[in-house]
Amino acid sequence: MSSTYGKILKIATFGESHGLGIGVVIEGCPAGLDFDPDFIQSELSRRKPGQSRITTQRREADEFEVLSGVFEGKTTGTPIALLIRNEDQRSKDYSHIAAQYRPSHADYTYQAKYGIRDYRGGGRSSARETAARVAAGALAKLLLKKVGVSVQAYVSQVGTLKLEKSYQELDLAQTETNDVRCPDAAMAQRMFDYIDETRKRGDSVGGVVTCVAQGVPAGWGEPVFDKLHAELGKAMLSINAVKGFEYGSGFAGVEMYGSQHNDAFFTDENGKVRTSTNLSGGIQGGISNGEAIYFRTAFKPVATIMQDQDSVDQFGEKVTVQGKGRHDPCVVPRAVPIVEAMTALVLADFYLRQLANRI
Amino acid sequence: MSSTYGKILKIATFGESHGLGIGVVIEGCPAGLDFDPDFIQSELSRRKPGQSRITTQRREADEFEVLSGVFEGKTTGTPIALLIRNEDQRSKDYSHIAAQYRPSHADYTYQAKYGIRDYRGGGRSSARETAARVAAGALAKLLLKKVGVSVQAYVSQVGTLKLEKSYQELDLAQTETNDVRCPDAAMAQRMFDYIDETRKRGDSVGGVVTCVAQGVPAGWGEPVFDKLHAELGKAMLSINAVKGFEYGSGFAGVEMYGSQHNDAFFTDENGKVRTSTNLSGGIQGGISNGEAIYFRTAFKPVATIMQDQDSVDQFGEKVTVQGKGRHDPCVVPRAVPIVEAMTALVLADFYLRQLANRI
Amino acid sequence: MSSTYGKILKIATFGESHGLGIGVVIEGCPAGLDFDPDFIQSELSRRKPGQSRITTQRREADEFEVLSGVFEGKTTGTPIALLIRNEDQRSKDYSHIAAQYRPSHADYTYQAKYGIRDYRGGGRSSARETAARVAAGALAKLLLKKVGVSVQAYVSQVGTLKLEKSYQELDLAQTETNDVRCPDAAMAQRMFDYIDETRKRGDSVGGVVTCVAQGVPAGWGEPVFDKLHAELGKAMLSINAVKGFEYGSGFAGVEMYGSQHNDAFFTDENGKVRTSTNLSGGIQGGISNGEAIYFRTAFKPVATIMQDQDSVDQFGEKVTVQGKGRHDPCVVPRAVPIVEAMTALVLADFYLRQLANRI
Amino acid sequence: MSSTYGKILKIATFGESHGLGIGVVIEGCPAGLDFDPDFIQSELSRRKPGQSRITTQRREADEFEVLSGVFEGKTTGTPIALLIRNEDQRSKDYSHIAAQYRPSHADYTYQAKYGIRDYRGGGRSSARETAARVAAGALAKLLLKKVGVSVQAYVSQVGTLKLEKSYQELDLAQTETNDVRCPDAAMAQRMFDYIDETRKRGDSVGGVVTCVAQGVPAGWGEPVFDKLHAELGKAMLSINAVKGFEYGSGFAGVEMYGSQHNDAFFTDENGKVRTSTNLSGGIQGGISNGEAIYFRTAFKPVATIMQDQDSVDQFGEKVTVQGKGRHDPCVVPRAVPIVEAMTALVLADFYLRQLANRI
C-alpha cells in the first residue's frame, strides 16, 4: 500500500469508509502561509455526499479538525494533520456483502493482496478517502494562489453528452452554479436529466472532467520521469474510477500531422515568449511553457448499481449481489473538487521542487 | 530534474543526445538472475534508429557495456550500470539551432527552467535517452519471465488508420514481422505506406501503441496513490511525445452504463476467480485481478518536420526554423520496445513491492 | 521538515507539545499482524512523564486511539493512524518564554529556519513527539517478534557513573525493575541517587543507553549507504538530546590493532557460521551477521534547568531565562523505550526490505 | 542494496573493486555551476591509493571521465555521470580467497544476503567505492563554496595517539602538508611512525577523523528525522570501517551537567545571534545555528592484515586466511577526503532542501 504522495509537499492519507475517520498528514508546506479553515471547509463541502439528488444520500458533514502544524493562524513548517470523523457509518448496510465480491469493485483484489479486508463500504478502497485529498489540496490551492496560479475543473462529458466547447469558450465562473458542475447552463441541465434518469433506473454512467491551470510560469516539471504531465496523469489515475488521462491535443492529436500540431512561438507585446496555438497543453518536454495547462480525465460508470448482479464470494461460490445501499449514479460532479485538489498538490509540489533548479 | 524511477527496482538514467553516451544504473535487481546480454542487445536493436526507411537515418549500433553488478553471468544484487556510447553525434547538424526554439520541442522550456541547455540534438530531452530505459527494461523482462509474466506491445493506430481488433483477436507473435510493428499484416502495410507518404512530404504523424501484460497474478499494485494503472500511466506519459493514456475501457468506457461496464466474477474450472469480461483492463481498485492487463498510449506527431516554421530565438527575435536533419516521420514503430520496457519496469517493481504485503 | 522515516515500513509523525495531540501514520505494515493495543499502551506507559520523582511531573495518560488500519483485531495492510491527545497542556507556563531563546534548545534555530514557531513547550521540537515513535515502534516490535527478533535497551551510564559490564554479563530482564532502567540493581540505586541529587540542585545530567537486538539472522541491512548500523545511527541521532552513537567496539575500537579486533569465524555444532568474538557488533559490511547487534547512544544533559541563564530574545535583546516549569533531570530512563522503538522500526524495515534480495 | 543518497542532490554510485570501473550519477545539482574538473581530480588524488608508504600500494590513477550533464564548462541541471575506470585489477591476487570468509570483512554477510558475491577484492564492499563519493563530494564542495561554506577534515587520532587540541587551536591549512593529514606537525610525525611500525608488523590500527564545516548559516537541517547531525551521522557511518560518530560535546558531554553544557546566547557586534560556547557543535534541535559544525568519526583497524587467521569457507570448513596482498595499515589518512566528501554532500543537500522552507 502506498498512501503517500509528493516529493517536497507530501501527503499521507489514512482512514476507511466506515472506520473512525479519514485524515491526512501534510508535510513540507512552507511556513508562514495563512491557514484559511473556511476555505478548506468550503472545498470539503464541494466534495461531500448528499449535495443533490444526483449524488449519494450518505450524510456526512465532513467537518475537519486541525491536529497540528498551525499556530496563530499560520503554518509553521511542521506537519499539518487534519482529521475528518466519519458520522454516518451505517455498517449494518454492508454486512450482507462481507464475503461477497462486488463486480468491478476492489473487494476481490484487496482480499487477494492482503488476505483480509475491511469490507464495510469498501474500507480503504472507498472514494471516501478522497476527502483527505480535498482537504490537503485546498491548502495547496492557498499556496498556489500566493504565486498566482489558479486551478479550475469542470464536467465536460456525462455518458454520451459531450461539451464540445473548449475551456477558452466557457465561463468557468459558471461551474458552481449548477449541481452537475458544467459551466454551460444548457448542457448542465441536459446532463442533470441524464444522470437523474440513470439513477432512477438504478444504473450509473461515466463522465469526463476537464481541468485548467492558469498562471503557471515556464519552468515547472521535472523530466525525464517526473514530467509535469506524467505526474498529473498519475495523480488523476490515482483517483477512484479513473480510466484515462490526456492533455493538450491528447488522443485526438494522434490523427494530426506535425505541421498542423506544432505550436508556433512568437514574442508578445511584453517580450514574453508565447505560442500561437496550445496543442501542447501548456507543457513541452515535460516542463510548463507558460501557457494554460489543460487536460481531461475519464471516469468510468461507478460500480455500485441498484440491480442484481452475478458474482462469487470468498469461497468461490456463486452469489447474487443485490443492489441496495446508497450510491452516486455519476461520479463526475463530486469528482470536480477532487481533480482540482490533486492538480493543486502536483503543481504546488513542482513549484517547491523548481526552487532548487539553478545556482 | 528527476531521472530516477521505481521504488525497489530503481533506475537512474543519464546522458544526452550528443554527449559521450547514454546509460542507466539499475538498483534493486534481485541477486542470482541470469544476465542475458544477447537479449538486452536484441531489445536495444528493436529501438535503435535506422531500422527501415520509415525511421530516422541516424546511425547508432547502440551496443552496451556492463560496467558493474554482474559476476559470472549472474546479477549480484549490487547496482548494474550499463553504458551505450554515442557514435553518430554529428553535432554540426545542430549548430544552426543553437539559439533557436524549435516549435513543440523542449528547447524553450529547458532554457526557461535551467538558464542553459545542451542544444545539440535536443540534449537531455532527446528520445535517445529512452535507449537506457530499453536496456533496463530488458532486464526487468528477464525478471518477469521468471515469474511467468510477459509484456507485448504493438502499433494499433497511425494517424487516422486504426486497428479495430482487440488484442485477443490478434496474433501478437506477428508484431515483429513488419517494420511498423502492427500484428495485422494488411493494416501494417497500409500504415507503412501512410508513414512513408508522410515522410516524403517532410511531415510527421501520430500513433497509438497498445500494450498487453499477461500472467500477472492478482495482488500487484499499491493503492491508494501507486495504483497499478496510475504508475503505468505515469511511466507511459514519461515517454517522449506521449499525450494520453487509457486502460481497459478507457475513454470509451465513459459512455457506458454501470450495468454494461461491470465485469461479472465467476469461478473457473481450476477454482480460480475470473471475470467474464475485462473492461477493468485487469486492474480493480489499483490492484491486478489476474486478468490480462492492457492499455493504450497516444503519441503525438513528432515535432521535427522537414518544413520551414516560424519561431523565435533566445533573444525573442523572429526566426525561421528550417527543416533539415534526420527524423522519425512516425514514432510509434520504435516506441513499441520503449512502451514494453517501461511496462516491464513498472510491473517488476510492483512484483518486488508486493513481497512485503502480508505477515 | 522531515517527519517521515523508513522505506517500506514508513512512519509519519505529527503534533506539537501543546497542540491538540501527537500522532503517527504507519504505512507498510504487513496485513494480518495481530494488533495488540495493550502492548502498545504498555510501551507508551514506559515513556510517559510522571513515572517517578526523577522524571518530569507533567501529567499525561498517553492513551492512544486507533483511527484506521485495523479490522477485527488485525492489521489490514492499510495505513494505521494512531492519535494521542495532549491533556496537561498548561500553555500558560510557557508564555513568558514566547520571545526568548532558551539556551541549547531549538527556539532560535526554529525561528531562524521558519520565521515562526509554536513556542509552547518547544512545540514540534519537544521530546513529546517521541510518544508517536514509541507507539509505532511497539507495532514494529510485534512484527519482529513474529520473526524471532527481540530488542532490549537499558541505561548504562548516568553522568560519570558507568556500568562497566557488557550486555552478556547482565540480566536484561532486570531493566524494568527500577526507575532508572539499569539492569544492575546496585548501580541503578547509585544512578537514581545521582539523578535525584542533580534534580534537587535544579540541574540536569547526561547518560548513555545501550541497546541489544537478538535473533536477527544474517542478511539484514542495505549497503552501501543504508548500512544497518548507518540507519541505526541515524535513527538514534534523530532522538532529542542525542550527541553520539557507536556500535560494536565503537570509539574504543580505534585503539586496537586489527589482529586484536578481527572476529574469527567458526562453524558451530549446528553448522551455523558464527564469530568467536563480536567486536563487529553483529554487523559486517553493513549487513547483520547473525550475532547479537549492540550499540550505545549518548544523551546530553537536557537543556531545561531550574536555574537562571543569560540569553537573548527574538529582538536580539539580552534576557535572563528563568528556570521554572517541569523537566527531566536526566533523560535516559525515559529514553530506553524510545531507543527500543526506533531500533525496532529500523530492524522491521530492513526485515521487509530484504525480502526482495534474491530471485 | 541501497546505493543512492540524498533527497534533492542525489547520488547513485556503482562499481566493484575489480570490475570495469567505479562511478556515480549525480542528480539534482543546480544548473549553471562552474564544473571544475581539475578540482575534482585533485580531490580524487587525495583519496587514491599509493600516496605514501603508509597507504596501500595498489596503483590507480583514478582519473575520471564526464559522461553527461556538463555543457560548455557548466552543469546543465541534468544528471552528471562520472566514470573512473579500474586499472590495477590484479584479480589473480584474490583467487585464493574465492570461497574463504575473511575475518571482519563483508564476505560472509554478502554471501548470506545475496547467495552470490564478487569475491575479487571485496567486490562491491570494497572501499574503492568511495572514489565515486569523493568525485561527487567534490562537486558538492563547489556548490557549497558558492554559498560560503567550507568543509575541512583531519586526522585527530591514530590508535592511542590522540590530538588533544580542539579545531580552533589548530591551523587546518597544515592538514595537507603531511602524509597522515594531521594539522599538528609533531603529532603527525608520531602518527606516521606509529602507522609505519604497525605496517611493518603486518598489522593495522584504527583512528579518528574530525571534521569542521564553517559558514553554514542558521536554518539547515530537517527535523524531526532528518536532523542535520542525524544525516551527518548516517553519512559517516556509511563509510567503510566506521564504528562511531559524535558531534559537539559527544560522548564526553554525557558526564556534564546541563548548567555546564548549555551554550549561552548573545548578540554580537553585527547584531547576529551567537553562542558563547559551542558544545552544541553548531546544531540545535537538528538545525544549524550559525556556529561551526564539528564532529568526530571513529574508524576501526582495517580487517586486512598480513597475518594468518583462522576462519571458515563457504562450505563451513575451517581454513587459514593467509595475509597477502596490499592493504592500508591505517585507513584514516585516506579517509579524510571521504569524510569531507560525504559531509559536503549532506550539507549541499540540506542547502537545497531549505530553499522551500518559507512562503
From TrEMBL, chains A, B, C, D:
Q: Which UniProt keywords apply?
A: Amino-acid biosynthesis, Aromatic amino acid biosynthesis, FAD, Flavoprotein, FMN, Lyase, NADP
- Which GO cellular component terms are attached? cytosol
Source species, domain of life: Bacteria
Query: What cofactor requirement does the entry state?
Result: FMNH2
Q: What is an example of a GO molecular function annotated in this UniProt entry?
A: FMN binding
Extract the SUPFAM superfamilies matched here: Chorismate synthase, AroC (SSF103263)
Biological process according to GO: amino acid biosynthetic process; aromatic amino acid family biosynthetic process; chorismate biosynthetic process
Give the note describing cofactor binding and stoichiometry: Reduced FMN (FMNH(2)).
Provide the reaction this enzyme catalyses.
5-O-(1-carboxyvinyl)-3-phosphoshikimate = chorismate + phosphate
Q: Which residues bind NADP(+)?
A: R47, R53
Q: In which pathway does it act?
A: Metabolic intermediate biosynthesis; chorismate biosynthesis; chorismate from D-erythrose 4-phosphate and phosphoenolpyruvate: step 7/7
Q: Is Flavoprotein given among the entry's keywords?
A: yes
User: What EC number(s) is this enzyme filed under?
Assistant: 4.2.3.5
Chain positions recorded as FMN binding sites? R124, S125, S126, N240, A241, G285, K300, P301, V302, A303, T304, R326
The job of this chain, per UniProt, is described as:
This reaction introduces a second double bond into the aromatic ring system.
Classification via PANTHER family: CHORISMATE SYNTHASE
Question: What HAMAP family has UniProt attached to this entry?
Answer: Chorismate_synth
Family label: Belongs to the chorismate synthase family.
- NCBIfam families for the chain: aroC, PRK05382.1
Name of the protein in its database record: Chorismate synthase
Organism of origin: Rhabdobacter roseus
